[in-house]
């Protein structure tokens, strides 16, 4: 299935004790699709993948494929392993699960660079036949990769079809990468869709935001597709006012995204695993004001 449009990161859904709520996760995923998600992305940074154990990953992997395919949308699964050996094993598991695309987050714990980083990405792309998406998130990982390297990998691997770009600012990087890619570039905007209007103008194929408001992102995206720039800007301005507050850190946006999911009835508990964001009365009050402004845009 072609991947395009609004492809949110699936949340890690926990109960109040911090255990995986698998049934709740499946209900949430189905609701995200019903509200406008055109694909779901598992094990994204906003999905707290770094707080899961292997058994939990296996459960969520199979559940995601099942729910996405039952609802007719692609399933994207991220490979976040830091060693090449582990990444190759996990790539095989992702492909055999029935995933429609594997997203690859470059290893960043010890920040390999140069030949070591290239060899890792080269090996992982070569290990599967399904489409691959490469996630470039230097702010979160501290790993910088030149667009020339990404384009070189795409020229070598026909299945490296997609790129999620979330450097800051992303515009010049997207323009350079698009010019270098061999054909039909498929660029996705990250960073919670903060720059999605600029990204659209630069030819982006979609957006990969957090999970709490796929209908709002879809409203903006559909307006852009229809050429109604004024409507897209109007809704995006309301959204960005909220994002400007809650995306001050990864854990902060996860905290408030889950609170929105809970309020919308998508999940029963807004629990995040520790360590996480420590909210206070001031940040909560500002969240209430800004969320109230975006509420009329929710389906």
Summary keywords:
8 strands, 10% strand, 299 residues, alpha/beta, 12 helices, eight-stranded parallel beta sheet, globular
Topology record:
Blueprint: E1 5-6, H1 22-34, E2 40-42, H2 54-70, E3 75-79, H3 84-97, E4 101-104, H4 114-126, E5 132-136, H5 138-141, H6 147-156, E6 160-165, H7 171-180, E7 186-189, H8 196-201, E8 206-207, H9 214-226, H10 229-246, H11 250-263, H12 281-294
Parallel strand pairs: 1-8, 2-3, 3-4, 4-5, 5-6, 6-7, 7-8
Summarize it:
49% of the residues lie in helices and 10% in strands.
List how many beta strands DSSP finds. 8
Strand content: 5-15%
Low-confidence stretches: none
Amount of helix = 40-55%
Q: Major sheet: size, sense and barrel closure?
A: 8 strands, parallel
The rounded Rg comes to: 18 Å
| Mean pLDDT score | 97
Question: Which strand order spans the largest sheet, edge to edge or round the barrel?
Answer: 1-8-7-6-5-4-3-2
Following the backbone from N to C, one meets helices and strands in this order, namely EHEHEHEHEHHEHEHEHHHH
Number of helices: 12
Indicate the structural class. alpha/beta
The coarse silhouette is globular
- The N- and C-terminal alpha carbons lie at a distance of 26 Å
Give structural notes:
49% of the residues lie in helices and 10% in strands. The chain has 299 residues and is of the alpha/beta class. It has an eight-stranded parallel β-sheet with strand order 1-8-7-6-5-4-3-2. The chain is globular, with a radius of gyration of 18 Å.
């Amino acid at each position: 299935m072609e991947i395009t449009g609004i492809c949110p990161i699936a949340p890690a859904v926990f109960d109040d004790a911090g255990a995986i709520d698998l049934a709740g996760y499946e209900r949430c995923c189905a609701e995200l699709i019903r509200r406008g998600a055109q694909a779901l992305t598992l094990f994204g940074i906003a999905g707290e993948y770094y707080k899961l154990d292997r058994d939990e990953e296996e459960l969520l992997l199979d559940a995601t494929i099942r729910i996405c395919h039952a609802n007719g949308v692609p399933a994207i699964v991220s490979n976040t392993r830091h060693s090449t050996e582990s990444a190759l094993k996990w790539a095989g598991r992702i492909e055999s699960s029935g995933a429609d695309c594997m997203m690859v987050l470059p290893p960043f714990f010890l920040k390999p660079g140069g030949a070591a980083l290239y060899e890792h990405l080269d090996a992982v792309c070569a290990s599967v036949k399904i489409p691959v998406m490469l996630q470039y998130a230097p702010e979160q990982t501290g790993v910088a990769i030149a667009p020339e390297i990404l384009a070189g990998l795409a020229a070598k691997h026909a299945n490296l079809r997609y790129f999620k770009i979330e450097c800051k600012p992303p515009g010049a990087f997207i323009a350079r990468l698009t010019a270098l890619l061999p054909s039909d570039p498929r660029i996705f905007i990250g960073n919670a869709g903060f720059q999605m209007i600029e990204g659209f103008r630069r030819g982006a194929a979609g957006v990969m935001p957090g999970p709490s408001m796929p209908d709002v992102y879809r409203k903006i995206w559909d307006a852009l597709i229809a050429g109604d720039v004024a409507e897209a800007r109007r809704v995006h301005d309301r959204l960005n006012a909220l994002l400007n507050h809650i995306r001050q850190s990864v854990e902060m946006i996860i905290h408030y995204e889950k609170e929105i999911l809970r309020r919308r009835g998508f999940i029963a508990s807004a629990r995040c695993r520790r360590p996480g964001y420590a909210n206070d009365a001031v940040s909560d009050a500002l969240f209430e004001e800004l969320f109230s402004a975006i509420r009329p845009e929710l389906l």
